[in-house]
Write a sequence for this structure.
């Protein structure tokens, strides 16, 4: 990601900001870890649309992280795209296809009104590997937003959910970042 160069420059100065928020760090964490020391990115926060280390419970449509990662490598997708872990866009597309498949399988026909009615009947009842899915009365998706923080874990780093507090893996956010 482009922000790797910025973080390399910051890390080289020894400067520690009070906080760093990176919108899409979830699946970009390996890129950052290969470019800068772990100490330079620990306690970063960001929007968690999906990260391999965050396991959603209650998945009832599609695969969980382990099955998706296994399929990604074993079907040749990783080789075809040139990276071993699917990125956030890959995972969102997968989850969306799973939801669409469930709507189509459940709908009495492929007529737009039946598909919309079926989508509304399934709203709030589907959970994919990126979390619960729901739509509003107009058919727009209701966001499922989580904020994560990169935290020390053993000799490496992992993700912790720091918002919302009702998440099962919630952890208090570290602020400011320790020097």
């Amino acid at each position: 990601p482009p922000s790797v160069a910025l973080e390399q420059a910051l890390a080289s100065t020894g400067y520690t900001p009070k906080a760093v928020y990176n919108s899409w760090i979830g699946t970009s964490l390996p890129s950052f870890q290969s470019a800068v020391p772990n100490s330079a990115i620990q306690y970063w926060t960001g929007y968690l649309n999906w990260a391999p280390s965050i396991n959603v419970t209650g998945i009832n449509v599609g695969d969980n992280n382990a099955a998706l990662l296994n399929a990604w490598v074993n079907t040749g997708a990783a080789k075809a795209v040139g990276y071993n872990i699917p990125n956030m866009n890959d995972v969102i597309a997968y989850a969306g296809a799973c939801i669409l498949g469930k709507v189509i399988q459940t709908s009495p026909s492929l007529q737009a009104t039946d598909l919309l009615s079926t989508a509304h009947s399934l709203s709030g009842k589907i959970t994919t590997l990126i979390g619960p899915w729901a739509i509003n009365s107009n058919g727009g998706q209701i966001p499922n937003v989580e904020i994560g923080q990169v935290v020390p874990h053993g000799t490496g780093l992992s993700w912790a959910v720091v918002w919302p507090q009702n998440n099962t893996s919630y952890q208090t956010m570290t602020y400011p970042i320790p020097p």
